[in-house]
Design goal:
With 454 residues, this protein is mainly α. 61% of the residues lie in helices and 0% in strands. The protein starts with 39 loop residues before the first helix and ends with a helix. The N terminus is likely disordered.
């Protein structure tokens, strides 16, 4: 879900990377961007597109919901603390008191941060929800930093404070084994291998890729990530046994059915949201009860829609950015598997689902901010949600490296590392040819005029 709308909340401006006067393009050596090989008319056109924003305003019908309520939050929080301090008897249980104390530390931080954190680019269903997503991301990053300073044994035992069933080694599981699609001699039926794969993770896989399509809004990037992750599973199956799957599990169940169908449905939703007319009326200005109900449901849909045209070959900056996006996304996916293996967290555990629940909305905001950072010539600051999400991915990777570096250093099969070296050499060679050798060939003036009209 994405919106270009901007809300009014206590006079704060929420758009990431905007200067004091967003209508005036920032100058850089006579142009509006550091990408000097791009023509000024094209960059000015981009600046106008990003400054023509529809304002989400208080029309007087739901004023209560648009106020910050800073004093209300403060009074409510103080009342809760007074009750805990004076009216509630403290249990004689150190472990329980420690857990509850840490929980209230997080609650107080969230109460302050959600009230005073600047708005992001999303405004529906309410800016405070997206501020909460940002604050939860900060809490998660702080927890990762704490874990990073522990030993692997202490980190595993810390998991017991969240779930007493954790802290025990996980059994190694491989999904390869018998890969026959048709096994007529088996007692459970000839298609037992196929039916064994249909569990809760199949719809979860589909919904995950549906969400990824909505977040990235580009069919090529999502499919590249889909195929690349399956190749990484082939690459790393000597490190993680659960990456060892049957060929049809990789390419039919995952890439074609779960990933492919999720991406297709997601892009169809993107097309619908792109073409949908956006015209909003105040709730109490709608005369019929049916219209009011539809308006209340529509509050959970985007206020406006921003299409992502990443244009990876437009400039070296955008090409490296797209490569970085793909790399960071794949790292986030791999971190989930390595962390649950190293910290002994079984796949169905609630911790894994909580991490995923934090990642999805955070990634939606982060990639919206990243696209604006690349596409808007006046945007000079990396978005706050994009910043914290990048820090989370890197911190998770550092935890994996610290706790089990020997696992990551297991030697790759010869044919695997040869293929990756060839791939990196090919990408580097194409980059040099496209942005350094071919760049000296000036494009026809008509090419830029067509691009500026898009």
């Amino acid at each position: 879900m994405s919106e270009t709308a901007r809300g009014q909340r206590g006079g704060r401006r929420g758009q990431a990377g905007q200067g004091d006067d967003p209508a005036r393009p920032r100058q850089h050596n006579g142009t509006v961007s550091a990408e000097e090989h791009l023509p000024v008319p094209f960059l000015k056109k981009k600046s106008r597109e990003w400054t023509q924003e529809t304002v989400v305003y208080d029309d007087g019908t739901i004023t209560f919901f648009w106020r910050a309520h800073t004093l209300t939050v403060l009074v409510g929080l103080i009342c809760v603390l007074i009750y805990v301090t004076l009216l509630e008897e403290t249990p004689n249980n150190s472990e329980y008191n420690t857990k509850r104390g840490l929980a209230f530390v997080v609650i107080v931080f969230l109460a302050f941060a959600v009230t005073y954190t600047p708005d992001g680019p999303f405004k529906r269903p309410h800016p405070s929800i997206w501020r909460l997503v940002l604050c939860l991301s900060v809490v998660y990053e702080l927890c990762l930093i704490f874990v990073l300073f522990q030993t692997v044994d202490d980190a595993r035992q810390l998991m017991k404070y969240l779930d007493e069933s954790l802290g025990e080694p996980l059994p190694e599981q491989s999904y390869g084994g018998n890969c026959l699609l048709w096994d007529p001699d088996h007692s459970q039926g000839p298609l037992h291998n196929l039916w064994d794969k249909f569990d809760i993770f199949v719809p979860a896989h589909f919904l995950g890729w549906y969400a990824k399509a909505l977040i990235l809004r580009n069919v090529w990037i999502t499919n590249v990530i889909s195929v690349m992750f399956e190749l990484l599973e082939y690459t790393l199956e000597h490190q993680l046994p659960n990456f060892n799957e049957c060929w049809w599990d990789h390419w039919i169940m995952d890439v074609l059915i779960c990933n492919g169908l999720g991406i297709w449905c997601g892009m169809k939703t993107v097309e619908y949201l792109k073409m949908k007319p956006y015209h909003w009326r105040g709730l109490w200005h709608i005369p019929t009860y049916r219209g009011k109900m539809r308006r209340m449901v529509a509050q959970f849909t985007p206020y406006n829609w921003t299409s992502f045209d990443w244009k990876p070959t437009l400039s070296l900056k955008r090409w490296l950015a797209v490569l970085g996006i793909i790399t960071m996304w794949l790292l986030a996916e791999l971190n989930a598997f390595y962390l649950k293996t190293i910290l002994w967290i079984p796949p169905p555990n609630l911790i894994n689902w909580a991490r995923l629940g934090m990642y999805v909305p955070a990634a939606a905001v982060a990639f919206r901010e990243t696209f604006q950072f690349l596409d808007d010539p006046t945007c000079k600051k990396f978005g706050q949600q994009a910043w914290i999400l990048a820090a989370i991915v890197i911190t998770e990777l550092l935890i994996v490296m610290k706790f089990d570096l020997n696992l990551l250093l297991l030697p790759f099969p010869e044919h695997i590392w040869q293929c990756w070296v060839a791939a990196f050499v090919g990408i580097a060679s194409w980059t040099i040819w496209r942005f350094f050798i071919r760049r000296n060939q000036k494009p026809e003036s008509g090419d830029w005029s067509k691009l500026a009209q898009k």
